[in-house]
What we know:
- This protein is mostly beta strands.
- It contains three helices and 83 strands.
Amino acid sequence: xxxxxxxxxxxxxxxxxxxxPPVATRDAAAxxxxxxxxxxxxxxAMDAQPDSGDPCATDPNCGRDAAPEAAVxxxxxxxxxxxxxxxxxxxxxxxxxxxRANCGACGVACAANQTCTMGACIERCPLxxxxxxxxxxxxxxxxxxxxxxxxxxxxxxxxxxxxxxADCPMGQSACGGACVDxxxxxxxCGMCGNACAASERCVTGMCRxxxxxxxxxxxxxxxxxxxxxxxxxxCNNACPAxxxxxxxxxxxxxxxxxxxxxxxxxxxxxxxxxxxxxxAACPPAANGTPVCAGSRCGLTxxxxxxxxxxxNANGCEVDTRSSLxxxxxCxxxxxxxxxxxATCSLGACxxxxxAGFGDCDGNAANGCETDVNFSVTHCGxxxxxxxxxxxxxxxxxxxxxxxxxxxxxxxCGAAPGVCANPLSDxxNCGACGxxxxxxxxxVAGACRAVCPAGQTACGPSMTCVxxxxxxANCGACxxxxxxxxxxxxxxxxxPFRVTSFGTTCNTVNTEQLHxxxxxxxxxGATRLFVNADQGMASFDPLTVATAPNVxxxxxxxxxxxxxxxxxxxxxxxxxxxxxxxxxxxxxxxxRAYQGVxxxxxxxxxxxxxxxxxxxxxxxxxxxxxxxIVHTTNVYDIxxxxxxxxxxxxxxxxxxxxxxxxxxxxxxxxxxxxIYLTNIQSSTAIARTLVPSGVTTTVAMFTNLGDAAHFTVxxxxxxxxxxxxxxxxSQFGVVPEGLVSCPVTVTQNxxxxxxxxxxxxxxxxxxxxxxxxxxxDRGPIAVGYGEAYVVGDGGTIRFASAATPVLTSAFxxxxxxxxxxxxxxxxxxxxxxxxxxPLHSNIGIVSVNRLVPLSEGNLLPAGAGITLSQPISINTxxxxxNMVFNGWDRLVIFTGGRLWNVNLSNGxxxxxxxxxxxxxxxxxxxxxxxxxxxxxxxxxxxxxxxxTRIARLRVGTGAISTAGAFTMLGDxxxxxxxxxxxxxxxxxxxxxxxxxxxxxxxxxxxxxxxAR
Length: 1011
């Protein structure tokens, strides 16, 4: 047996370690039993003989340490024999080349994340990776170790699935040695090796179900090629515009509202060439473009043109750039106003004022209303106001400003300058700029020394006198009082005193004549005038007999409500309109009660109506709750509200012309039809339909004379129709005739219907009004059971319009609250504010004019005179006012002061303050008494109480008795007539001269006076 010693080596990085395995004794049978199959078998003869080259053949300790036991590795079993290549470690034979617990030597254990490779502990590679040298790599994709360690791919190759393949184009991936698009590849959908199922295909890198029958996969989407307009029959086979896909074929299919016209779908609701149906082209239009809307042809006009008649046949026929009737747009009228001309330029209405006129109020409705030739506020042009000089007036003539000074005054200084009286102005004494020195005054155009306070230099000698008391210079230099007169407070006073008030009287009850007394009277030259609620009545001043003379304003504009009988008068701010007063702008209805117009509460009209009172072209018609004024248009007036409705233009119906500005008729209504009924001729009453003008005859007569006025009194079975005529008619021959006859009236106050029929001539009565009211002026009005007739002498009120006999005439007219008189001559005057007479209960007025009045009708008998200063009177406070009639003078107590008015020249003097004395008041604005003069003293005579007429001395306030009585009642008005030596009074109810409850008395008694 031989022994063989081997050197076993392990190669580790950077180190070669060798170890001596255990010595084995082998026999011939054991030869190569323990060898690695890689080693060739040892010849048996060789095994039997020692190797001659073996250095240990002769050395028993060859390869061993000096102490063999110590040479054994730690943990190695020195006595255990392991097969070749293994080592005995801990009683086990292990391969220290790969054993993680004994890696490289017994007891050397690798960490948990390490493995033993070639006898050394190295880090373990992740799953799927292989260690190649010091690196862990994925040999399926690593270009340097493709398939195995050290196998590198060539340039422009990529390792894919452990094989080197050529690089793939952009967007493709190498899968299984081939380049594939993983967004569409069914075998590599989304990533290599991800194969889609047989019923799926790869779409955008995801496996999706394959398209259904009849569909095609177009652009990544399953499309129904049977119906898709974009993929009809095949992908991307799009149908042309106007066609649709059906059963995979493109064909023309029109949807509502289109229809097939010439192989094209056309919307016939809007196609101008196929409007409503195929081929129905809208015709061409002049100045416009044809259009189709809603299957109907229309027009779109060119700029500056309009289809104003609504007809397509003549196109846009109007040039709206220049048409006055259609300026800028159809229907936009360009109309000129007063004193204007109108043009249309580029669609804009241009209004130009006539020469000499201007639109100064900016109101286009009234045109160019201002005459700039003469307007001081718009002289020459609008807004140019002429400045007025001090103490003078501005003027405008031919558009040039000027100034007006009082006669004798000089215009001094730069414009507008000062109007100076060279006789008295100390700054312009005798001539402009001649200023008097300090302490001087200007007298008669010369600078003189100043008189003491309260005196004035008068006369050639420039004597200083007191103008308040000097009879030769009373109120002003050289104003001398007449013989027997004295000067007091600058006024010449004639001596006058009532020496006795007698009790031998005549009386009359005036209540039935003119209603409730208002508390004033006036004694004229021939008549006595008494004021009451129904107006002024006149009497014989000696007997106070009730001669029915009519006074006051004629109610030429009277209308009345056939439903209620209420009486109104057409008017403006100046009062009721009257014949021959020119053009009037009627803007209100003055209420009238028993023939007297009341200025306190007019019904204002919603629009004004122009009436020419100088002609005879107007028709006025009374109706139920309404009145119609017919000028060129028919204006329907609601009598309750004042609403004016323009019923349109209509020619005047055939009629008999009147002696005033109007004819009078009635308004009838049936349903929506309105009729104007008037006297058509001397034989017919006719009815005219508004606004057509169709006329039918209502009633026929044999002879109505010259009648131009008729109306109706509506009172059921007692209804009457009334007519005025002059001279002769079938009813008789009289100077001025008024006829009342039965008639039938049908009315409905709810619907406004009113018709009149059954005009009769039986049962009529006639009365001559000439003796009472003079020549007729025309209008007839019926109200509250009374009839009113207007004549030149005034208005007559008849007691009842329903009675067959028209008698019992009463005197009526305007109230006489404004009337005063002169005891010296009986002249009558009116207190006026500008053109309006004073009236009770209208608040504070400024009386500034004294107007002479006619005894016949109390109308102005002249222009009157302007008071030297206005007097403010509160007409609503009767207890604070007293008026005293005197000899050439009038004294008014108001506002706690006395004012003396000279009746000849309007000079007003302030007589100072006065505490109101105890006195009876009236129902008008003031109680009425008498003013006396004795020397320079002034006494006021008035009714103090029911038993005394008192006399109050102005200045001292001393009161004495002028007359004592047993019972004067509520007498608040007394007057005196020197020419008749009688005194007059007005009272209610009972007094010592007349006893009757609820009566209105006027009386006159004997008296004496002294001068």
